Amino acid sequence: MSAASTARRACVALIPLVLTLFLAACAAGGGTGQTETTPTHAAVESTAPSGTAATSSGSTAPSETSLSGTQTTGTTYAAASAGSPGGGDPYFASAGNGGYDVLGYDITLDVEPDTGRVTARAVVRATALQSLSMFSLDLVGLDVSSVLVNGTAASFRRDGQELKITCPQVVEGDKQFSVEVSYSGVPKGIKNGRGWHRVDGTIYTFDEPQGAACWFPVNDTPADKATYILRISVPKPYMAVATGVLTSTESHGNLQTFVWEMKDPMASYLAGVDIGDLVEETSTSKKGVAIRNYFDPKVADQARRAFARQGEVVDYFGTLFGPYPFQVCGIVALNVDIEAAMENQTLILFGRNKLDSGVGFLAHELAHQWLGNSVTINRWKDIWLNEGFATYASWLWYEHTDGWQGLQAEIDRSQRELKASVGQILSDPGAGDLFHDFVYLRGALTLHALRLEVGDDSFFRIMRAWAERHKFGNADTSDFIALAKEMAPQVPEADLDSLFDRWLNQPELPSLPASRAH
Ligand SMILES: [Zn+2]
Predict the structure, then answer these.
(1) Which of 295, 412, 473, 496 could in theory staple to 300 by disulfide, Cβ–Cβ 3.0 to 4.6 A?
(2) CB contact at 8 A, 419 and 509
(3) Among candidates 332, 246, 327, 247, which has minimal Cα distance to 281?
(4) Cut 0.70: pTM above it
(5) Predicted confidence band of residue 79 (pLDDT cuts 50, 70, 90)
(6) Burial, 446: exposed, middle or buried (Cβ in 10 Å; 0-12, 13-18, 19+)?
(7) Torsion-angle region of residue 195: left (phi > 0), alpha (psi -120 to 50) or beta?
(8) 197 C-alpha to ligand 1 centroid (Å)
(9) CB 333 within 8 A of CB 295
């Protein structure tokens, strides 16, 4: 996601952007309460208790309660249990779920842009990480009409943002299973502008960190990446675009269905859908990256100017972080105001109000395709690995085009701004300050401090290895520190431990180290 500060040379009055997100509240908001639906054609009554809390970390969180019991069908639950209703993220206790790992989402959305109504079906393929008697998906609002598990009707109930599903038959550990959820309604955004939005005939999603559950049932943690198929039907002449590659367009009377496939793993907060009056523009970067953008005709000229160097930036980052990771590189520019740009995987979202923000702003979002999208955090507290890294990448772009002075100007400006941020801890900024300026600026300065400490050769080896070793995967701050030690053996480990501790864990803004000659 962009911060205002990434846009050097943007508008004159850059008010420091503080995207204060009180998203803890979203976990309880928008749910449909405690309703229960039991399919009439399958008498299923589970004795599995519903969970109350996550007990361990990760999408691999095991059950919170073991049980032995029987279903009314007589099937014995041999140690089957309920998957945890939380993914273990300390910032968002209800987000994500335990007991399974999603392989792919196949989501069909019939959208009526004029009313906002969506009629949808989501098929979620997953692997059980334990023997499951029940499990949860995250879904905020919307009416669920049926749930099938492996093709058999399942009972379910809503509890806040949890869609708690009782398996009609125990799903064995390590086995793949499918869940089909039919649902409908008018998706609502959650607090602070996240989720599904409909403005003046334009629809877009902006999900970081917790908006995806507003429009599809999801294991809403970045730790559980998956493939996606989005089949979106809209009336003509609307166009529906999404993250991934357009694999087919079909016409059915007045409706058109656009099918978008993301075959590379994607975190749920990076899945994007945009609907409106859009024109496609395709090109290829000099180094062969396929570019496909979608612009609202009303902002197309402005967007073309704003993104004129898209291919050049992507090619430059390819020299730093390895080849562009995905099949296509795209941007959608909409004729609505959006508070920030968002790096949705292969289809960056820009509102018209961000089109004059400058090439550094664009570079930040493009860098996220490697740093955040291909290499993804497990826990939101590690957000500096996204925002600090993308910010530093945009500084590297300035260094590339303007020389050392271009980089130095960013360093000086950041140090000035950060003097107001004393007391904040980069390694644990808190759920409300995930997208605070200090995460972006201090995160970028942390990388610069590392660069000065280890020297350019080691630093750029570290950055490239980071993007290549964790490509399409997840990684934590501890992985980055270990990689830095491995790639810079000439620096005593104690020195690196000290550097990272000062920059990540201490409230005071450290001085940059003197450059070492290596
Ligand atoms: Zn960002």
Answers:
(1) 295
(2) yes
(3) 332
(4) yes
(5) low
(6) buried
(7) left
(8) 20
(9) yes
CB 47 within 8 A of CB 71: yes
**Residue whose tokens read 């990388």:** 447
- Ligand 1 centre to CA of 368 (Å) is 7
How far does the centroid of ligand 1 lie from the alpha carbon of residue 71, in Å?
A: 48
Instruction: Provide Rg for the chain, Cα atoms.
Output: 23
Closest residue by Cα to residue 414 from 380, 434, 437, 384: 437
DSSP characters over 207-274: -TTT-GGGTS-B---TTS-EEEEEEEEEETT-EEEESSEEEEEEEETTEEEEEEEEEEEE-GGG--EE
Angstrom distance (rounded) from CA 481 to CA 442: 16
Q: What is the pLDDT of residues 185-195, one digit of tens each?
A: 999 888 777 99
* 431 CA → ligand 1 middle, Å: 16
287 class by beta-carbon count within 10 Å (0-12 exposed, 13-18 middle, 19+ buried): middle
Structure token pair of residue 328 = 């296509």
How many Å lie between the centroid of ligand 1 and the Cα of residue 127?
Answer: 31
Lowest mean pLDDT across 12-16, 382-386, 396-400: 12-16
Distance 230 CA to ligand 1 centre (A): 24
Residue 93 pLDDT class (50, 70, 90 cuts): confident
The CA 104 to ligand 1 mean position distance, Å, reads: 25
Q: How far is the CA of 366 from the centre of ligand 1 (A)?
A: 9
Over residues 431-456, the mean pLDDT reads: 96
